[in-house]
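dumping this here so i dont lose it
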């Protein structure tokens, strides 16, 4: 699952009053073309950085606009020549405030990872009282049950089945306490991308991403009453049983099986073909083809679960 590089173009003006409150007028950018994650920007796009970036950030595009702390401005400018550093006291808080203002004004485009045009294929079967945002893309042969909510920016690919009372693309919770003491939730710019031939059970919630979309690969089965956090990447043919919870930004690789009511911590990886027994609590990354069970989950003998049992 290679990372998708996503960008979010602006369709309206950046609220410069927020920037003007913390930047001298000479430092204000003349224009901002979009929003992206640090390290994935193009010229004219805005991001933030509030800690020394690791070695994985080999380059940042010239012309990128980077909200950063005073202490980082010199380091970033020397390491990434051509970027424009915008030093502010709390870059993360300002980025959050700018993002919410843009989303409230409907001034951010849907992720460029979602192909245009938007629309619902005429052969789609949609149950009663289901609400689908007009800026979604739903491909051929999709079935969506009753009382579902499909939020803006969602892409559902061919042959997928979504059962009753499921919500796709709702914003999640990711709290940050700023230097001013205020707790802020991150704006969720990104989408949910569901591959072909997926089945999602009733009452499941799939949260959209912040700056990287939540992705579910081809031919996955997601059981009833599951919760998939923001920015999660699920490979192909993953089997996830009833009541499974997956924390944000976790990656689950091809062919993994998660039993009933498994809970998976955020920001870890489940290797390809791994088997997690029911009720397990996974707090560390799991190697490919490993079998785990328990709270916390530990290595055990082979577990035969899911479609291959």
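and the seq i came up w/
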């Amino acid at each position: 699952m290679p990372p998708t590089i996503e960008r979010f173009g602006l369709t309206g003006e950046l609220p410069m009053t927020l920037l003007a409150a913390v930047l001298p007028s000479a430092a204000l950018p003349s224009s901002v073309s979009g929003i992206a994650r640090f390290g994935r920007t193009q010229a004219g796009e805005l991001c933030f950085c509030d800690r020394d970036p690791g070695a994985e950030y080999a380059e940042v595009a010239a012309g990128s606009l980077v909200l950063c702390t005073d202490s980082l401005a010199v380091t970033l400018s020397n390491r990434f020549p051509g970027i424009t550093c915008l030093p502010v006291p709390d870059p993360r808080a300002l980025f959050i405030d700018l993002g919410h203002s843009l989303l409230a004004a409907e001034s951010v485009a849907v992720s460029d990872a979602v192909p245009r045009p938007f629309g619902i294929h005429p052969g789609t079967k949609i149950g009663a009282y289901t609400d689908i945002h007009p800026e979604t893309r739903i491909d051929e042969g999709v079935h969506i049950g009753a009382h579902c909510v499909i939020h803006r920016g969602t892409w559902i690919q061919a042959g997928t089945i979504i059962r009753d009372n499921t919500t796709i693309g709702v914003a999640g919770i990711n709290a940050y306490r700023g230097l001013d003491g205020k707790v802020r939730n991150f704006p969720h710019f990104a989408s949910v991308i569901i591959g072909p031939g997926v089945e999602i059970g009733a009452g499941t919630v799939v949260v959209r991403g912040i700056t990287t979309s939540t992705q579910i690969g081809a031919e996955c089965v997601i059981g009833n009453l599951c919760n998939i956090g923001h920015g999660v990447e699920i490979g192909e043919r993953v089997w996830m049983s009833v009541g499974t919870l997956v924390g944000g930004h976790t990656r689950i690789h091809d062919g993994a099986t998660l039993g009933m009511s498994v809970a998976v911590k955020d920001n870890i990886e489940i290797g390809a073909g791994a088997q997690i027994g029911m009720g397990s609590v996974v707090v560390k990354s799991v190697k490919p083809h490993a079998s785990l069970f328990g709270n916390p989950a530990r290595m055990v003998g082979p577990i035969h679960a899911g479609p291959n049992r």
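The chain has a mean pLDDT of 93.
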